[in-house]
Amino acid sequence: MKVLVLGGGGREHALAWKLQQESGVREVLCAPGNPGTATCARNVPLDILSPAAVTAFVQAEGVDLTVVGPEQPLAAGVSDALRAAGFAVFGPSQAAARLETSKAYSKAFMERHGVPTARARICDTADQADAAVAAFGAPVVVKADGLAAGKGVTVATTVEEALAAVDAAMRQGSFGAAGSTVVIEECLVGPEVSFFALCDGTRGLPIGSAQDHKRAFDNDEGPNTGGMGALAPSPLVDAALVDRVMRTVVEPVLAGMRSEGTPFAGVLYCGLMLTADGPKVIEFNVRFGDPEAQVVLPLLPVDLAPLLLAASAGQLPTEPLPPPTGARVGVVLASGGYPGAMTTGFPIEGLDVAAAADVTVFHAGTARGAGPDEVVTSGGRVLTVVGEGPDLRTARDRAYDGVARISFQDMQFRRDIAAKYV
After folding, report:
1. CA-to-CA distance for 302 and 170, rounded, in angstroms?
2. Is 52 left (phi over 0), alpha (psi -120 to 50) or beta?
3. pLDDT of res. 328
4. Pairing state of beta strands 265-275 and 192-200?
5. Which CATH number does 327-421 carry?
6. Is CATH 3.30.450.20 correct for 120-186?
7. In which region does residue 291 sit, left (phi positive, over 0), alpha (psi from -120 to 50) or beta (all else)?
8. Angle between the N-to-C axes of helices 251-259 and 103-113, in degrees from 0 to 180, rounded to the nearest 10
9. CB–CB of 104/181 below 8 Å?
């Protein structure tokens, strides 16, 4: 089949990299892609936020399956347009995507359907949010309702920090319309894990787990980011926990979405806190995570394309997947200053050398430079260097060996990815 991957980050590079290896895939296209996806797919210029443009392209190219990478095209209704035109697409509808695109909707949905999550208040004014912060006390979590590029959540250790987050979102408009409503919720205690299930509207199929590292600096210090590294599989997720999450989270979500007329077909990314009372949902994403995709997809023991096509058609297999073997550790190399102000456009050295050292380098914030083979930085998170091995220790050692072979001006990365688990 011919597959189109929408997006241009590390997640999309991982998707294209996985798909192009499969015997049932004759060609992978990536829109808009990046220098990394160009090595395993045909990059095409396309406005991926335009439902009409994407639909016209899919028709003209004879695409058999479109895989939506990031959340923005889902929020824009791209998957709805493709389905309405009769094309296979992996990604939930605009309405179902509200599980991610609106924190307020997601929280209210979980309360309606008994999905375990933190106590919370949905606030439409800054005064309401200030009162909720005072009621909860510290620590407390402040979440902008809408999409904020992974930066709309503040885990405040003091009331003053929480009130400042409310002020920034609701009075200063730091996140635009995304911050006009906020969710104030209790701060759950426990280790955090990421859990992924493919869904076809009725059934869910678990495909892996990971541990993300959200804070910018070592020892989980600094501001929240889109993710500075990840490992898979999570050593905290065993078969019993998989069964429990499917029973208490994934299946109630699918039943609830169907009952409300918005069946969910796509990947449900459950951000979980493993509390003393069991797993509770911190948030949902409705697409593969980044950088989690870069460590989860290489471990998938079966071809991905048939699963995505089956999910899009409401026909996921009922039998579980075989367990993955080995481990992956991914370290994100970011531009200096990320997630704040930063300068880009710097040449990246050592990509070929690193790729020869038992690692896979997935591109995110990269672009072509002036020279024929030059690649330069173009965003906050630039690369994810993924090490593989039979265990986490080996995978981590290889990842950091790969990191040591790459350089660019002001390169920033965490040195403790997966450290606590080895």
Report:
1. 46
2. alpha
3. 98
4. antiparallel
5. 3.90.600.10
6. no
7. alpha
8. 100
9. yes
Two tokens, residue 292: 């989690």
d(CA 133, CA 138): 8
| Tokens at 202, concatenated | 């009725």
Instruction: Give the mean model confidence (pLDDT) for residues 295-323.
Output: 96
Give percent helix, percent strand, percent coil of the chain, each to the nearest 5.
Answer: 35, 30, 40
- The reported pTM is 0.94
Q: What is the 3-state secondary structure (H, E, C) of 153-170?
A: EEEECCHHHHHHHHHHHH
The residues, ordered by sequence, that sit 6+ positions from 39 with a Cβ below 8 Å of its Cβ are none
Return the amino acid letter for 83: R
Q: How many CB atoms lie within 10 A of CB 174?
A: 16
Assess contact for 333 and 383: CB atoms under 8 A.
yes
- The verdict on domain 2-91 having CATH code 3.40.50.20 is yes
Task: For residue 2, give the 3-state DSSP assignment.
Answer: strand
Least Cα distance to 45 among 62, 61, 25 occurs for 61
- For domain 190-312, the question of CATH label 3.30.470.20 is answered with yes
For residue 197, the cross-strand partners are 206, 268
Per residue in 52-65, pLDDT (tens digit) is 999 999 999 999 99
Contacts by 275-280, CB closer than 8 A, 24 or more apart: 275/188, 275/189, 275/190, 276/189, 276/190, 277/116, 278/116, 278/244, 278/248, 279/116, 279/193, 279/241, 279/244, 279/245, 279/248, 279/249, 280/116, 280/117, 280/118, 280/188
DSSP state, residue 220: G
How much of the chain exceeds pLDDT 90, in percent? 91
Contact 70, 11 (CB under 8 A): yes
Name the CA dihedral angle for 257, 191, 329, 386, rounded to a multiple of 10 degrees. Answer: 50
Report whether 393 contacts 401 (CB < 8 A): no
Report the amino acid identity of residue 420.
K
What single-letter amino acid sits at 346? F
Do 182 and 292 contact (CB within 8 A), yes or no? Answer: no
pLDDT at 150 over 70: no
- Look up residue 133 and give its two tokens: 């912060």
What's the first-to-final CA gap in the chain, in angstroms?
40
- Indicate the domain borders of the chain: 2-91, 120-186, 190-312, 327-421
